[in-house]
Amino acid sequence: MIQAMSREWVWRVLAPVLVGVALVLGWEGICRGFSIPSYLFPAPSAIVASFVENMPLLFSSFASTALVAFKAFGLAVLIGTIVSFLFVQSRFAEIGLFPYVVLLQVTPIVAIAPLIIILVKSTELSLIICATVVALFPIISNTVTGLRSVDPGLLSYFKMKRAGRLNTLLRLRIPSALPFFLAGLRISSGLSLIGAVVAEFVAGTGGRDAGLAYQILQSGFRLDIPLMFAALALIAILGIIMFLLMSALTQVLLGHWHESAIAEHG
Amino acid sequence: MDAFLRSAANLARPQTDQPAVPSEVPAARARLSIEPISDGLSPGPAVTVAGASKIFSNGTHALANIHLSVLSGEFVSFIGPSGCGKSTLLKMIANLYEPTEGKISWWGGDRRQIGGPGRRLAFVFQDPTLMPWARVEKNVRLALDLEPRGTQDTNALVAAALEQVGLTRFARSYPRQLSGGMRMRVSIARALVDSPNLLLMDEPFGALDEFTRNKLDLDLVQLAWKQRLTTLFVTHSIYEAVFLSTRIIVLAANPGRIYGELLVDEPQLRTDAFRDSDRFSELCRELSRMLTGASKAVMA
Fold first, then answer.
1. B224, B199 in Cβ contact below 8 A?
2. Which of the listed residues B157, B190, B223 is the one where a domain comes to its end?
3. Nearest to B129 among A153, A162, A178 (CB)
4. Is the same domain home to B212 and B255?
């Protein structure tokens, strides 16, 4: 049984790695075979060389973008959770505020970002606000749905036991909402990174705290396409890290009881 | 056998369009071969429903003019065609729904009586309604967590409740790791840990196979006897109603109302041998006839 499980696990890791290696080798072969210039479409070896050459710069940008994305994500979780609780506890708050939450969601961040960057003095703060705006909606939407998706039988039981609002919230609504909340986190973690990158593009800020989006912009201007690909790869890696962190959190919190986590991880 | 038939004819009292008269109940009670039970606090009925009706906000007339009185220690089942308001009546008695008209009293008083010493109420739903994120012991403990009892050793109470339903070994399991029957036992343990005096059960074994249902019925009837519980039980099964009950209330639909009642004048502590008896078959036939009548009954 354990052997079969570990075989399955090795296969799950090995299969994507093999596909990746094949793709990279094919890519390298095509670039070399057709002598494609690196300013048009660089070979993986050229990207790696550029990555090694610009490592300090890229890591500094990586840290900068990651910091903005994580701070924005944390802020979105905090605000989203508070707003969701408010919506569930007060019908007036929900009816009054929900249209504006939707408005924030449907307005493209590219359109709002310049305004935020002008209004907020600190560049980092303006980037965080932009990324938070993008990441906020899925958390509110999912958490509100979760807090409302309570087993009616259990709710009747709590009512019969004359449990107060706080007891019902802590013992019933929050655990019931957890799967929805975590699904929202998974979406929002990716969106906070997208928001951070888009905001960096709009802000176009250089200097010591320049993010990965700035490196992409600059390498585009200089036709340093290998560096552009290296920065792009780091953004993708950052997105994967955030997704894996959320998956691990989901597994820790739901793995022992919720079908989604049990089915996914056996 | 003739005596049995006469007895059944007398006990089965179709009451088309007639409310069950509370004053009839003590007389009926005297015919039951069980010891009168007193909790020392409430010599009167555990529950009295006086002219209760229920009309939902969408206009559905669920119940009309229900009169009912249940004495302490009785095991009363409600049976009737779908939509006759059995569950609604039970939820009204559980104080989950307000009657649109009429009054419900518990131990001779209003809802404030519920929860006092010797006046505890527990409800077992149609589904186990367990918290899937919590282990079995935590599910059972919920009743005590929501209504803390001061210095009482909650661990001991939870352990005792689990032992009563035969799930001691599964205290650390999650609900998803249990069978349907076991999950329902957890739900019953959660009700029992509260040391209820009045146990309300809304078709709790409806989704289980016949074998498991019979086993749980046997466990329940013995438990109710041992704990001196007043039990109100909703079911669709004629056999289950006859096996468990000291009194069966037959309801008719559109709107839900009491059609009649059948007294089961057998010792309250039943065994499987009762299922094989002629008396059991006779009572089932009688109840079946009443149910057919209730299904055809149209409000005058």
1. yes
2. B190
3. A153
4. yes
pLDDT digit string, tens, across residues B187-239: 999 998 988 999 999 999 988 888 888 988 998 998 898 888 999 999 999 99
Domain containing residue B265: 2-120+196-296
Q: Are residues B84 and B151 in the same domain?
A: no
Facing A257 at nearest CB: one of B94, B126, B174 = B174
B142 touches chain A (CB under 8 A): yes
Q: What is d(CA B34, CA B40) in angstroms, rounded to the nearest whole number?
A: 17
pTM for this one?
0.79
Q: Do B115 and B261 have their domain in common?
A: yes
Contact list in A for residue B121 (CB cut-off 8 A) is 160
Q: pLDDT tens, B38-79? A: 444 445 789 999 999 999 999 999 999 999 999 999 999 999
Closest to A225 in 3D by CA, of A234, A216, A233: A216
* SS3 of A5-23: HHHHHHHHHHHHHHHHHHH
φ, ψ for residue A75, nearest 5 deg? -65, -40
Q: ipTM surpassing 0.85, yes or no?
A: no
Indicate which of B114, B129, B202 best probes the interface with A, i.e. most A CBs within 10 Å of its own CB: B129
**How sure is the predictor about A207, in pLDDT bands with cuts at 50, 70 and 90?**
low
Residue B11 sits in the same domain as residue B135: no
Sign of CA dihedral B11, B17, B18, B22: positive
Among chain B residues, CA nearest to A157: B123
Dihedral sign for Cα A65, A67, A70, A76, please. negative
Closest residue of chain B to A257, computed from CA coordinates: B133
Shortest Cα distance, chain B CAs vs residue A82, angstroms: 23
All residues of chain B having their beta carbon less than 8 Å from the beta carbon of residue A172 are 131
Cβ of A163 under 8 Å from any chain B Cβ? yes
Mutation target for A interface from B113, B121, B131, B139: give the one with most A CBs within 10 A. Answer: B131
Tokens of A50: 């550029």
What's the structural domain count of chain B?
Answer: 2
Dig out the tokens for A192 from the structure. Answer: 């906070």
> Which of A161, A257, A262 lies at the smallest CB-CB distance from B143?
A161
The answer to whether residues A59 and A212 touch, using CB atoms and an 8 Å cutoff, is no
Interface test with A, best of B133, B178, B183, B203 (most A CBs within 10 A): B133
Tell whether B148 and B238 lie within a shared domain.
no
